[in-house]
């Protein structure tokens, strides 16, 4: 067998190359390992035969699959498509995915717990703000407490608390305005004590000769008269009663309705005779305001007021002295 046409002996081996021994008698090489082929790289002892076209392997290299990258010391065998690792590296969980980052308490970015529903303080403050009396006294402090707690607990209801504060402030403004108006709405008097401008008059401020308008005045003897509604007016303006006497009642204990009626009736007759020496004009009658037990302990409660009124409780436009 010849290596090349016309060549009976083939290429001579290089010094030290396997197969460089003397030829045998039949013309084949005397080197161990058998015959070689054109272009074949020499092999090493114990090396598995390569496939055509595969690059040579280094001594000690394990047989692997085509295209698989070499493994590093201590690394478990790689699978097709898996990136190579480094010494001591643990394999990534779940097929090469990335591990999740650390979590923080509460689940929020700043560590605070999530909102926990509506604030009962805010709801109570808003409801109280809609009620006039509670809106003045209770809504404002409840709303302040609600805002403080919401800031710490992150509950809902901040807008309700703010609305309660605004409504409460409006109630306070209205109450102060009414108080100022009530205070300024008193009847004005001249230096002689005569009413010159209509306005509110208190029970203890009534004087003999005052002309007053009492909206609740009627012929019903059993009906109480609301003295809070009483207005002092000049006697040349419309009014339904004129004071002809004031009876002071002695004693600290309430004497009772019947005793007050009897006492005030006698004394009011004497007071009217002094105020009107010629007696009551035609169609004019006497009327008395006797304090109740509730009024007795108020300022000026220990007094009965004697009035002159028309028999039908209609309005008058001048003093009974001028009739």
Give structural attributes.
alpha+beta, disordered N terminus, six-stranded antiparallel sheet, elongated, 7 helices, 323 residues
Task: Please state the CA-atom Rg, rounded to the nearest Å.
Answer: 60 Å
Number of helices: 7
Number of strands: 8
Question: What's the rounded overall pLDDT mean?
Answer: 74
Shape: elongated
Low-confidence stretches: 1-10, 28-37
Written description of the protein model:
The chain has 323 residues and is an alpha+beta fold. Among the domains are: 120-183, no CATH class; 189-322, no CATH class. The protein is built from seven helices and eight strands; from the N terminus they run H-H-H-H-H-E-E-E-E-E-E-H-E-H-E. It has helices at residues 93-96, 120-129, 132-137, 139-153, 158-184, 257-275, 293-296; strands at residues 188-189, 195-197, 199-200, 211-213, 231-233, 241-248, 284-289, 303-310. The strands form two sheets. The chain has a six-stranded antiparallel β-sheet with strand order 3-5-4-6-8-7. A two-stranded antiparallel ribbon has the order 1-2. Strand 1 and strand 2 form a beta hairpin. Helix 4 runs antiparallel to helix 5. The chain is elongated, with a radius of gyration of 60 Å.
């Amino acid at each position: 067998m010849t290596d090349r046409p016309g060549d009976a002996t083939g290429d001579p081996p290089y010094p030290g190359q396997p197969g460089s021994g003397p030829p045998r008698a039949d013309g084949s090489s005397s080197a161990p390992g058998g015959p070689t082929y054109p272009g074949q790289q020499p092999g090493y002892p114990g090396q598995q035969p390569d496939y055509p076209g595969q690059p040579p392997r280094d001594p000690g290299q394990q047989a692997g699959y085509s295209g698989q990258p070499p493994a590093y010391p201590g690394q478990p065998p790689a699978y097709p498509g898996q990136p190579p690792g480094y010494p001591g590296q643990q394999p990534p969980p779940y097929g090469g995915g990335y591990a999740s980052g650390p979590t923080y308490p509460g689940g929020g970015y700043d560590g605070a717990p999530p909102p926990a529903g509506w604030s009962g303080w805010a709801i109570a403050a808003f409801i109280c703000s809609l009620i006039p009396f509670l809106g003045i006294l209770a809504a404002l402090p409840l709303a302040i407490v609600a805002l403080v707690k919401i800031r710490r607990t992150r509950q809902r209801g901040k807008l309700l608390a703010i609305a309660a504060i605004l409504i409460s402030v409006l109630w306070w403004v209205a109450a102060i305005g009414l108080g100022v108006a009530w205070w300024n709405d008193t009847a004005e008097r001249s230096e002689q004590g005569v009413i010159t401008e209509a306005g509110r008059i208190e029970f203890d401020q009534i004087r003999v000769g005052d002309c007053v308008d009492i909206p609740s005045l009627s012929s019903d003897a059993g009906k109480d008269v609301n003295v809070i509604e009483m207005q002092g007016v000049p006697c040349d303006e419309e009014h339904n009663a004129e004071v002809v006497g004031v009876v002071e009642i002695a004693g600290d204990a309430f004497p009772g309705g019947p005793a007050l009626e009897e006492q005030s009736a006698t004394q009011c007759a004497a007071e009217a005779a002094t105020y009107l020496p010629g007696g009551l004009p035609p169609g004019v009658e006497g009327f008395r305001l006797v304090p109740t037990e509730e009024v007795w302990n108020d300022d000026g409660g220990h007094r009965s007021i004697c009035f002159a009124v028309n028999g039908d409780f209609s309005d008058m436009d001048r003093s009974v002295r001028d009739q």
